[in-house]
């Protein structure tokens, strides 16, 4: 039943019910109170006029209420529960009017590709489920001042504020990926395209931003499954990023990611104790892509576990072929990203690898960041205990930059901590950095945990660490990362 019919029927029934009660009880009251004909006639006349007044007020009140209900109902999209386009524009304009110089507002329009052909196969109910799912992906409660609307059958608009413009591209890329993953549960051919506009360079009000974002969307729709910005420079940056993701995926699949090794030394004797394995990527067009760029890309796109598997495979092969493993090299350190360490599937894959390669596992040290360990200490402890059954050791990398409680060492069975390079490089001039470094070394020794100082770049830093009785060290001063055949292994430090 349509809402207008429902509200009209509700109004009519309310009036009928009130009028029936009035006639029934008012006639009885008049008969009781009126003893003569004149009084009876007057009472009937008064009753009729009073009925007209009361019913007029009642009808006015009911009509006002029903109009408000109708307006409220039209403010909400019945399928997704999102704002209607008119409410979206009104509220978005209010937000933009309050914007200041520090505000970073972005409006994007998302459209589902191949919507008509796919929904013809899905049917009415599953199509509504699909739309509700997309709405939930877009209308995230984690972003403050997030306004979302379904502006067309398969098109959504969202205005949101970010703390910095640098967050825009990663946010849109993540949203685009998550929406595609959701859509492809329904059909492999269905994807989405996104057009993005930025306040106030692309428009100073909601209407202007919607126009700019729609223009960008039209460009994205030409290719499908794409993101486009109204700003041409941002669009080029987005394309470059998207191409990098594709090329990185190909490089991992084709085993074109190289590895280098950085030596670690025992400070008391100067002997080589181990090597840290680091990934390197040389792009055909852009040259050397730093790990600070391609590792976050691998994490965002959920193929960092493939990258780790390739690094482990190449490290084991090269070290075994060189016959260094177990002879000069007693330990091989490999970094595990926080995303990977907190993924059940990724850890299961590492567990399978270690089980299949017990000889390499004996010399392997897995490095996890302090923040990864702090995400869920109980789960972290379980993962560490599970993998240590294969003989691997564990190190906490970048130690000191997080907010670690010393109680973490009672919960997680780690073998080593690596003092973050920021303390090592500051301790020559900053007595607090030196005191913190000395404190970490003393506490770790008391707990039977090995300590590695990383990022050593000067002789003075090395001398200070020897004075503080640090066990192990690595850094550019001792040896740059290099391929195994080019590695210059210093015999004395």
Tell me how many strands there are.
14
Distance between the termini: 85 Å
Could you give a short account of the major beta sheet? 8 strands, mixed, barrel
CATH H level of the largest domain: which superfamily?
Answer: EAL domain
| CATH class designation of the largest domain | Alpha Beta
- Overall 3D shape: elongated
Number of helices: 19
- Please indicate the count of domains: 3
Proportion of residues in helical segments: 40-55%
Q: In what range is the share of β-strand residues?
A: 15-25%
CATH hierarchy: architecture of the largest domain: Alpha-Beta Barrel
Describe this structure in words.
Helix content is 54%, strand content 17%. α1 (3-33) packs antiparallel against α2 and α5 (124-138) runs antiparallel to α6. β6 and β7 (272-283) form a beta hairpin. It is an alpha/beta fold. The chain folds into three domains: 3-74; 85-230, Reverse transcriptase/Diguanylate cyclase domain (Alpha-Beta Plaits, 2-Layer Sandwich), CATH 3.30.70; 246-486, TIM Barrel. The model has no long low-confidence stretch (mean pLDDT 83). It has 19 helices and 14 strands. It is elongated. The strands form two sheets. It has an eight-stranded mixed β-barrel with strand order 6-7-9-10-11-12-13-14. The protein has helices spanning 3-33, 37-74, 85-97, 115-122, 124-138, 168-183, 206-223, 232-253, 291-300, 304-322, 338-341, 344-356, 358-361, 370-375, 377-388, 408-411, 421-426, 431-446, 459-467, and strands at 105-112, 147-152, 155-161, 192-198, 227-229, 258-266, 272-283, 287-289, 332-335, 364-369, 393-399, 416-419, 450-453, 472-473. InterPro entries: Cyclic-di-GMP_PDE-like (IPR050706), EAL_dom (IPR001633), EAL_sf (IPR035919), GGDEF_dom (IPR000160), Nucleotide_cyclase (IPR029787), Rev_trsase/Diguanyl_cyclase (IPR043128).
């Amino acid at each position: 039943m349509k809402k207008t019919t429902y509200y009209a029927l509700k109004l009519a029934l309310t009036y009928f019910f009130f009028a029936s009660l009035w006639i029934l009880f008012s006639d009885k009251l008049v008969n009781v109170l009126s003893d003569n004909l004149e009084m009876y006639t007057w009472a009937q006349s008064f009753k009729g006029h009073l009925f007209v007044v009361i019913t007029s007020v009642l009808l006015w009140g009911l009509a006002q209420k029903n109009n408000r209900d109708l307006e409220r109902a039209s403010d909400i999209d019945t399928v997704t529960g999102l704002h209607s386009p008119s409410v979206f524009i009104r509220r978005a304009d209010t937000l933009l009017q309050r914007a200041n110089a520090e505000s970073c507002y972005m409006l994007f329009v998302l459209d589902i590709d191949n919507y008509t052909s796919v929904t013809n196969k899905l049917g009415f109910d599953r199509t509504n489920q699909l739309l509700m799912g997309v709405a939930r992906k877009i209308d995230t409660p984690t972003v403050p001042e997030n306004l979302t609307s379904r502006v067309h059958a398969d098109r959504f608009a969202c205005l949101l504020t970010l703390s910095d413009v640098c967050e825009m591209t990663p946010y849109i890329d993540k949203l685009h990926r998550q929406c595609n993953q959701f859509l492809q549960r329904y059909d492999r051919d269905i994807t989405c395209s996104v057009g993005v506009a930025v306040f106030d360079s692309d428009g100073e009000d909601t209407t202007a931003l919607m126009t700019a974002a729609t223009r960008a969307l039209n460009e994205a729709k030409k290719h499908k499954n794409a993101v486009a910005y109204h700003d041409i420079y941002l669009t080029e940056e987005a394309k470059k990023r998207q191409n990098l993701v594709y090329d990185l995926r190909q490089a991992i699949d084709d085993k074109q990611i190289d590895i280098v090794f950085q030596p670690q030394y025992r400070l008391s004797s100067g002997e080589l104790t181990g090597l840290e394995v680091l990934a390197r990527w040389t792009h055909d067009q852009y040259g050397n892509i730093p790990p600070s760029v391609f590792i976050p890309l691998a994490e965002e796109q959920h193929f960092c576990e493939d990258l780790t598997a390739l690094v482990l495979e190449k490290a084991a092969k090269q070290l075994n072929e060189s016959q260094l493993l177990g002879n000069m090299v007693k330990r091989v350190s490999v970094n595990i990203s926080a995303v990977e360490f907190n993924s059940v599937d990724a850890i299961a894959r590492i567990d399978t690898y270690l089980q299949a390669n017990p000889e390499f596992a004996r010399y392997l040290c897995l490095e996890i960041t302090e923040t990864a360990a702090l995400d869920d200490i109980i789960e972290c402890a379980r993962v560490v205990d599970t993998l240590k059954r294969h003989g691997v050791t564990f190190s906490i990398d970048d130690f000191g930059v997080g907010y670690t409680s010393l109680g973490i060492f009672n919960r997680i069975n780690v073998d080593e901590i690596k003092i973050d390079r920021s303390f090592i490089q500051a301790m020559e001039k900053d007595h607090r950095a030196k005191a913190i470094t000395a404190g970490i070394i003393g506490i770790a020794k008391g707990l039977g945990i090995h300590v590695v100082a990383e990022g050593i770049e000067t002789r003075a830093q090395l001398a200070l660490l020897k004075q503080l009785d640090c066990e192990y060290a690595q850094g550019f001063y001792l040896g740059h990362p290099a391929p195994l055949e080019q590695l210059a292994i210093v015999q004395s430090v």
